Amino acid sequence: MKNTGRKKKFSFSKIYSFKRGKGQSSSSSKDEQSQIGGPGFSRIVVCNKGAGEEEENGSSVGYYAKNYVRTTKYTGATFLPKSLFEQFRRVANFFFLVTGVLSFTALAPYSAVSAIVPLVFVIGATMVKEGIEDWRRKQQDIEVNNRKVKVHEGSGKFSQTEWKNLKVGNIVKVEKDEFFPADLILLSSSYENAVCYVETMNLDGETNLKLKQALEVTSSLNEEDLKDFRATIKCEDPNANLYSFVGTMEFEEQQHPLSPQQLLLRDSKLRNTDHIYGAVIFTGHDTKVIQNSTEPPSKRSKIEKKMDKIVYLLFGVLFLMAFVGSVYFGVVTKNDSGRRWYLRPDDANVFFDPKRATFAAVFHFLTALLLYSYLIPISLYVSIEIVKVLQSIFINQDVNMYYEETDKPARTRTSNLNEELGQVDTILSDKTGTLTCNSMEFIKCSIAGIAYGYGVTEVEKTMAKRKGSPYNSSQIRSTIKGFNFDDERIMNGNWVNGPRSDVVEKFFRLLAICHTAIPDIDENTGKVTYEAESPDEAAFVIAAKEFGFEFFKRTQTSVHVNELCPVIGESVKRSYKLLNIIEFNSSRKRMSVIVRDEEGNLLLLCKGADSVMFERLAENGREYENETREHVNEYADAGLRTLILAYRKLGEQEYNLFEEKFLEAKNSVSVDRGAHIDEVTEEIEKDLILLGATAVEDKLQQGVPECIDKLAQAGIKIWVLTGDKMETAINIGYACSLLRQGMKQITITLDKPEIAALEKTGDNDVIAKASKQSVVRQITEGKNQVDDLNSEALALIIDGKSLAYALDEDVKKLFLELAIGCASVICCRSSPKQKALVTRLVKEGTKKITLAIGDGANDVGMLQEADIGIGISGVEGMQAVMSSDIAIAQFRFLERLLLICYFFYKNVTFGFTVFLYEAAASFSGQPAYNDWFLSLYNVFFTSLPVIAMGVFDQDVSATYCLKFPLLYQEGMQNVLFSWRRIIGWMLNGVCSAVIIFFLCVKTLSPQGFNKQGKIAEYQILGATMYTCVVWVVNCQMALAISYFTLIQHVFIWGGVAAWYLFLLAYGAMPPKISTTGYKVFVETLAPTPFFYLVTVFVVVSALVPYFAYKAVQMRFFPMYHGMIQWIRYEGKIEDPGYCEIVRQRSIRPTTVGLTARSLARTSPLKDNKNQRSR
């Protein structure tokens, strides 16, 4: 293969995870390939097939999905029917569709056009919004599908083509920093040994580069070789598993096993590699990333669901009003003895015929439904949608949620759940990368039983403060990223003269060799930096470098290190032949490399978790075990992540036997190949000799304790779900104030002698039964403690093994009862599935809003299960998301809940004036208002102020929200959107309607309306009443607003002005169009002073009841936000006594956080009581 495009500084391209095996003959064991060709493993791909060649093995490129990807909800053909179906699924819209159809009949009390236009406007506006959103998705699809990639067209030549034209079996050339257009099998790359580096941030949020390597048989392919390249790939069918792949490649009559090591996934990016050649195996919607991108579960907020119930209530009121009026109308019509002579009952149609009174009543019922339909707010849903979208825009542009370091603002991917943020009851958080930075620093170590490192961790500082003891705050921080170690005993080569220098040397050498990091040498300065698959790996290699063991070069078969020689005191270059790398995984919890040193010794170097390493030590390798265990526990107490380092020498015969079994396991193509490999590695990773332990710190993100304190004061419960060990999680809990001194801890664990004794027997059934009984007993005991100490703050800590049994169907209810009785819950050693199950348990068990926040692929299940999921894409976005958590208290939830109540108020006010007028008109079906007055009320004259309020109003400023987080409890406890409050607003609407109607009727009748002596006919009465309604509902809005902006002034008073302008314009139209509105304002209302007097009198009278109620409530029975408004108004923000009175009104006491810790210090008697209870 040509060596073009290689860079000198990337001489590290020669790394591999397992020694590559030779290809198997086609007659190899059928057992190993039993999965291929069976259910789920039936895909056959013919690579580089020419245009004229026949399909082989029955495969057909046309059978497989095209590479065109569509993420839109609609197509050109389906937009209209699907969108209309979505709109008329809403019961209110369907109701207005029915009334619109009925408006074309003789039953309608108004013209059909006036009924249809508002409906068309509302439905059209929502459809346009959905169309625009879908068009944006369409544009993204077009951009992706039209990206260019080089595809092999034959004879070793490549030409540019669009992604959407790729087919299964094509050979493509992907160049540096390009995305992979489909799922590919890596054939070769620009580096020798066919290695490439891939960034998978778009798939799993991880920024660390992943190493991929082609099969040895294809590693030398170049453009010239590709013209004759033919191969058949048989593999698994399309599935969503990103981390597994089973297949074989038949090439040159030999079968070669394929693994995830050769799989390049669509939407991942080629990095640090000039180019690669790959064969397309999955395209379009068959690719793994698209298989994973299923539509998220449809989430509707509880507010929206409750809004539907209120609309149903209004429907009930509407039908009741129509029924009562129709019964009355039927009775009066049947008994009509000439009192209603003007209806001419002797010559009436069916609508007023006394002889057909029953039919008249039925027809009147339908007419009444049409007439009172304005009781239902037709613009409610579209207005709420507009408010949500505008709020999302403001959230995205909030500078307080902008993270300057990475230039990342907050992003709301859906606006449907905005109001849910104001009602969160429980937050379930990952720890690493969410509460902490996921930026590791090497800070301490234990070597040969001696502890090194004087650094002070954030947890230790917090613990020192908690105990009242001083700590060294003048520590000088290292300027080297990943290294914050301070101990002169082993720094600067001093370890050479220290105790057990031979063990120290082996310890540092292991750090420099046992890893998969990649060195990057700057050609100008010669400085070495590292690309590692995890922050821990990078910290270890950097630490080894600082201690005198600089890893500077890697090839396919060797690792090169500049080592400080203890004999001559100078750095010497040493190389180690790299035989095998046995990678870390979540089940093994360790990583090993097998190398041969320059003296010919075979060495197995291993590092891993203490839970698996100590049990693998040889009898003669436990010399420092007790001291190391003690140090590891101390490091865990300090919130550090620890690993045990050990090694052993291997014999040639032992290694050859391992190599044979290892290759056999690796070359198998069954789905349990990983289990076979683990079985083989178990046999050699034993009888180890202990060297020591490392300790790295994953720092708390800035502001985490303050954030948790504010959330705790807001009454929000916080659960931490982490994979870390119990001691580390507990101390992180202390550092971020989830735990505090004096708080009783309920610990549920299976790390008990009786369980350990059973585990040695190996009887899984007995172990499982005893473990479950132990967990149930511990949960029951904890529940009893909660019941006995119900006034005290308790913390629940449970490990992953116990959690597995606590989530059983017959135990989980008891576990939840215990957990919700505790102030803090920490689940340690949790698997991704357990995180999701715990989230589901909390959501379904408490029936309250849950919010999950996490930063990695292992948190996806948790995020999808929660009512609200906040995802963090890689390290860069963490700080911004932490800010958004803090900013939850700033979300203007109060106003959003209030505006929904206002919608029903204004519609009840308007609808009841129509009802009262019809009652006064003997339920004759005569509307009080002109047709277009009715139609434009909801859509034009009263809707914009509501939108402005929902977007711009704030009862309390953001500053006061953060100072008094208990304000959040109003939303969480549903204080502002309770049925009592909703019914109260409706009754307020009825009260306003009664005042408006009767005052207008009594003041305008029967005396003369103007100086000509003309009386107020129903046209004048209707226009006057309508004017009063518009004024009242807009002034009601002004009274409800706490924070006026120019836009709100424009919308409120502009709505009133728009009514007068409409009267002028509409009245100027011909009588055939304007009907009862013809010049009613210019000729009748405007010249008459009495009209203005009536308007002022009626509006003031209608607003007095609400104003009086609010004045009494605000002064004598203030709600939380009302009390805080008084603090602001009276300037008592700095009065600690008054502020404390406000805090004592909290619905839920604050039991965790800095504030609770401070209060605990001021209440020593309570702390003593807690300690005695322990």
Automatic annotation (TrEMBL):
<dbReference type="GO" id="GO:1901703">
    <property type="term" value="P:protein localization involved in auxin polar transport"/>
</dbReference>
<feature type="binding site">
    <location>
        <position position="431"/>
    </location>
    <ligand>
        <name>ATP</name>
    </ligand>
</feature>
<dbReference type="Pfam" id="PF13246">
    <property type="entry name" value="Cation_ATPase"/>
</dbReference>
<dbReference type="GO" id="GO:0005886">
    <property type="term" value="C:plasma membrane"/>
</dbReference>
<dbReference type="GO" id="GO:0045332">
    <property type="term" value="P:phospholipid translocation"/>
</dbReference>
<feature type="binding site">
    <location>
        <position position="607"/>
    </location>
    <ligand>
        <name>ATP</name>
    </ligand>
</feature>
<dbReference type="GO" id="GO:0140326">
    <property type="term" value="F:ATPase-coupled intramembrane lipid transporter activity"/>
</dbReference>
<dbReference type="InterPro" id="IPR032630">
    <property type="entry name" value="P_typ_ATPase_c"/>
</dbReference>
<keyword id="KW-0460">Magnesium</keyword>
<dbReference type="InterPro" id="IPR023214">
    <property type="entry name" value="HAD_sf"/>
</dbReference>
<feature type="binding site">
    <location>
        <position position="724"/>
    </location>
    <ligand>
        <name>ATP</name>
    </ligand>
</feature>
<dbReference type="InterPro" id="IPR023299">
    <property type="entry name" value="ATPase_P-typ_cyto_dom_N"/>
</dbReference>
<dbReference type="InterPro" id="IPR001757">
    <property type="entry name" value="P_typ_ATPase"/>
</dbReference>
<dbReference type="GO" id="GO:0000287">
    <property type="term" value="F:magnesium ion binding"/>
</dbReference>
<feature type="transmembrane region" description="Helical">
    <location>
        <begin position="1050"/>
        <end position="1069"/>
    </location>
</feature>
<feature type="transmembrane region" description="Helical">
    <location>
        <begin position="359"/>
        <end position="382"/>
    </location>
</feature>
<feature type="binding site">
    <location>
        <position position="859"/>
    </location>
    <ligand>
        <name>Mg(2+)</name>
    </ligand>
</feature>
<keyword id="KW-0479">Metal-binding</keyword>
<feature type="binding site">
    <location>
        <position position="859"/>
    </location>
    <ligand>
        <name>ATP</name>
    </ligand>
</feature>
<keyword id="KW-1278">Translocase</keyword>
<dbReference type="GO" id="GO:0016887">
    <property type="term" value="F:ATP hydrolysis activity"/>
</dbReference>
<feature type="binding site">
    <location>
        <position position="722"/>
    </location>
    <ligand>
        <name>ATP</name>
    </ligand>
</feature>
<feature type="binding site">
    <location>
        <position position="723"/>
    </location>
    <ligand>
        <name>ATP</name>
    </ligand>
</feature>
<feature type="binding site">
    <location>
        <position position="858"/>
    </location>
    <ligand>
        <name>ATP</name>
    </ligand>
</feature>
<dbReference type="Pfam" id="PF16212">
    <property type="entry name" value="PhoLip_ATPase_C"/>
</dbReference>
<dbReference type="InterPro" id="IPR008250">
    <property type="entry name" value="ATPase_P-typ_transduc_dom_A_sf"/>
</dbReference>
<keyword id="KW-0547">Nucleotide-binding</keyword>
<keyword id="KW-0067">ATP-binding</keyword>
<feature type="binding site">
    <location>
        <position position="829"/>
    </location>
    <ligand>
        <name>ATP</name>
    </ligand>
</feature>
<dbReference type="InterPro" id="IPR023298">
    <property type="entry name" value="ATPase_P-typ_TM_dom_sf"/>
</dbReference>
<feature type="transmembrane region" description="Helical">
    <location>
        <begin position="1089"/>
        <end position="1109"/>
    </location>
</feature>
<dbReference type="InterPro" id="IPR036412">
    <property type="entry name" value="HAD-like_sf"/>
</dbReference>
<feature type="binding site">
    <location>
        <position position="537"/>
    </location>
    <ligand>
        <name>ATP</name>
    </ligand>
</feature>
<feature type="binding site">
    <location>
        <position position="430"/>
    </location>
    <ligand>
        <name>Mg(2+)</name>
    </ligand>
</feature>
<feature type="transmembrane region" description="Helical">
    <location>
        <begin position="310"/>
        <end position="331"/>
    </location>
</feature>
<dbReference type="GO" id="GO:0005524">
    <property type="term" value="F:ATP binding"/>
</dbReference>
<feature type="transmembrane region" description="Helical">
    <location>
        <begin position="91"/>
        <end position="109"/>
    </location>
</feature>
<keyword id="KW-0812">Transmembrane</keyword>
<feature type="transmembrane region" description="Helical">
    <location>
        <begin position="932"/>
        <end position="952"/>
    </location>
</feature>
<feature type="active site" description="4-aspartylphosphate intermediate">
    <location>
        <position position="430"/>
    </location>
</feature>
<dbReference type="InterPro" id="IPR018303">
    <property type="entry name" value="ATPase_P-typ_P_site"/>
</dbReference>
<feature type="binding site">
    <location>
        <position position="855"/>
    </location>
    <ligand>
        <name>Mg(2+)</name>
    </ligand>
</feature>
